[in-house]
Q: What sequence folds into this?
């Protein structure tokens, strides 16, 4: 069985951002069945050997304005980010999640700055990690939570040969609008709430104990054996199932006042949405971690928005090693 701390850490990692073609719209269920149905924002479709981790795109409408909630996982197949990039061109504006992401928009508006002369990196001490060149905030400005989550997610991405979200998405795109807090705001909100990374981990562990363990999502012996033999597809399946079930843990964590990571950042995103809709925008997307979307959709419904459809996009296309397309350099020569 996966240790509760690891499972909880995975759930926490699904909350933060540095994130096959979309299917046709499916009509939303109506009436009491719709209200009673449990909504999913990440799902795994497949068996123990092969399958797909998918994220949702939810369409909501109100008074002629359309908003689509685009769920994200923060490490995925490169094709996932290519499909999202194509999707984003269809929005009048794309509201995006990224703590301190306003700095990238400022760079776009002000133009590129002269490159500073890079000092040689000091030798790494034992246990240290190399600096993240894609990091938009200096190490001194960052919350410890972001350091830990970033290292954890990059480790997962490297092991499974995934692409990291900030490498697959061009956040300098002109229709992108920052809809998240700055690092200073994040740190201040955590201080005001008395929230630390240790507190979040404690909440995650307590939530997991409350929700219980899904035994079907635990890695199986055969999957671990295959990983030792060089085929990580079984572990990908187990990881995908963990992510698909993390929503219950997140919902439990958000009880009793919520968290800065979800509640306060969602509030900021919807403040930006209200501002843009008031300015006359009619076709918007909100690109946020899938763990944010359950609470975000509830808040939009309170504002009068109604769900009109959903569709799904593949983030991880998992196949056994023997079925994976090999690079040309590894293909047998004729």
A:
């Amino acid at each position: 069985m996966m240790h509760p701390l690891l499972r909880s850490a995975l759930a926490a990692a699904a909350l933060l951002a540095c994130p096959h073609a979309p299917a046709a719209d499916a009509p939303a269920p109506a009436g009491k069945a719709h209200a009673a149905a449990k909504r999913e924002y990440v799902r795994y479709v497949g068996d123990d050997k092969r399958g797909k981790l998918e994220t949702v795109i939810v369409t909501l409408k109100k008074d002629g304005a359309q908003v689509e909630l685009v769920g994200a996982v923060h490490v995925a197949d490169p094709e996932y980010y290519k499909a999202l990039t194509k999707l984003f061109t269809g929005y009048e504006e794309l509201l995006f999640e990224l703590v301190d992401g306003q700095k990238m928009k400022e760079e776009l508006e002000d133009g590129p700055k002269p490159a500073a002369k890079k000092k040689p990196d000091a030798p790494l001490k034992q246990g240290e990690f190399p600096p993240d060149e894609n990091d938009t905030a200096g190490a001194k400005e960052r919350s410890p939570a972001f350091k830990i989550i970033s290292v954890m997610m990059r480790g997962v991405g490297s092991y499974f040969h995934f692409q990291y979200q900030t490498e697959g998405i061009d956040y300098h795109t002109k229709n992108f609008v920052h809809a998240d807090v700055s690092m200073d705001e994040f740190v201040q909100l955590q201080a005001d709430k008395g929230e630390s990374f240790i507190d979040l981990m404690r909440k995650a562990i307590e939530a997991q104990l409350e929700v219980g363990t899904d035994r079907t999502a635990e890695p199986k012996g055969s999957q671990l054996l295959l990983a030792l033999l060089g085929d990580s597809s079984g572990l990908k399946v187990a990881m995908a199932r963990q992510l698909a079930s993390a929503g219950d843990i997140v919902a439990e964590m958000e009880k009793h006042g919520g968290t800065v990571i979800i509640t306060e950042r969602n509030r900021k995103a919807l403040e930006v949405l209200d501002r843009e809709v008031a300015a006359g925008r009619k076709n918007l997307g909100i690109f946020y971690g899938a763990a944010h979307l359950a609470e975000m959709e509830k808040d939009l419904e309170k504002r009068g928005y109604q769900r009109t459809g959903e569709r799904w996009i593949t983030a991880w296309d998992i196949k056994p090693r023997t079925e994976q397309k090999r690079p040309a350099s590894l293909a047998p020569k004729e």
Q: What stands out?
A: The mean pLDDT is 75. The chain has twelve helices and ten strands. Residues 4-108+137-317 form one domain. The beta strands are 26-27, 42-46, 51-62, 65-72, 75-76, 93-96, 163-164, 176-178, 283-289, 306-318.
